[in-house]
Design brief:
The protein is mostly helical. It has one domain. Helix 4 runs antiparallel to helix 9 and helix 9 runs antiparallel to helix 10.
Length: 317
């Protein structure tokens, strides 16, 4: 990381010491747009219009700030690769949910924090401490406890059976794409920080809008070819307001992550983002009057423990 002035050092210090806070804010927005999607009439139509809103927001952003022609071909190439991976990730996840039960698909798709540290060490040279490894395992255990009704062993057995199941290929493709776009986005934001060290927030938003436009164009082409136009328009007329809110929330959610990627280890960020799962579960308890139960309390405590371990790791480095 290049620091060009005392003012830059101060900005980096403030951002680096607020990374966990920014990740939590991102998780809150991530939970919000997922809840909006979950409560929509048709999640695929909803995602298509949400993507169009994000494209409009991105156009407005570039009209205000100017289109970033100065970033050069290298950074545009990273955005293109990321956009393609994100586009196919959304399509792959929808295919996975259409072929198998969510009880199989969801935990596998959310298992990226288990694999990201290994690939981050191999491709990015990140040094992973024992505290971070322990935190990753604790947070993933919390997610599995939530999803398998505290029967963690049964959940792991389901995963082992799923590996041998031909219809699960889309689920594992989804997991592969999550790990892939995480690595690509981290490498891209490192490049942004190298070339433009004094503008981390605009770096994050610029990259997000570039890759999001590409990703949602891919998704919308698929959705418009798969779903009848009248069905799409009917769903849009009902959910257009919620789609706009989801587009704004998605922008803040991943835009903030792109900012934090310039300062923090990828393994730390991917692990802490799992807090959004817990937020959605607790929202379900509040909205649907479901009992919190011992499993949800245990999962919450495990997530808090994971966050504490990551915080301790950051303070000793």
């Amino acid at each position: 990381m290049i620091v060009k002035s005392t003012n830059s050092k101060w900005k980096f210090y403030i951002l680096a010491n607020n990374s966990i806070f920014l990740i939590f804010v991102s998780s809150l927005f991530h939970s919000f747009w997922n809840i909006l999607t979950q409560t929509s009439n048709n999640s695929q139509c909803f995602s298509a219009l949400k993507g169009i809103w994000i494209i409009f927001i991105g156009v407005a952003y570039f009209l205000i700030t100017g289109f970033p022609l100065e970033i050069g071909n290298e950074l545009f190439m990273w955005a293109l690769i990321s956009g393609i991976l994100h586009g196919f990730y959304i399509l792959s996840l929808s295919r996975a949910y259409s072929t198998e039960d969510i009880s199989y698909v969801y935990p596998i798709a959310r298992s990226a924090p288990v694999f990201v540290p290994l690939f981050a060490w191999f491709f990015l040279g990140e040094k992973i401490s024992l505290l971070v490894i322990l935190a990753v395992l604790v947070i993933i255990s919390a997610i599995y406890i939530l999803h398998f009704d505290a029967k963690l062993i049964n959940g792991l057995k389901n995963m082992c059976r799923a590996i041998k199941h031909n219809d699960m290929r889309w689920t594992f493709i989804t997991l592969f794409l999550v790990v892939s776009y995480s690595l690509v986005d981290k490498m891209a934001m490192d490049k942004y920080m190298f070339y433009y060290p004094e503008t981390p927030y605009s770096n994050g938003l610029t990259f997000f809008f570039l890759e999001a436009v590409i990703g949602f164009i891919i998704c919308n082409i698929y959705i418009f070819n798969k779903i009848p136009r009248n069905e799409i328009m009917n769903n849009w007329s009902i959910d257009w307001g919620k789609c706009f809110l989801a587009g704004v929330a998605t922008t803040f959610s991943y835009g903030l992550i792109c900012v934090v990627l310039q300062f923090e280890k990828l393994s730390t960020i991917v692990s802490l983002r799992q807090v959004s799962v817990l937020m959605v579960v607790y929202w379900g308890c509040w909205k649907l009057n479901e009992p919190y139960g011992r499993k949800r309390i245990l999962a919450g405590l495990l997530v808090i423990l994971g966050v504490i371990l990551i915080s301790i790791d950051g303070s000793v480095q």
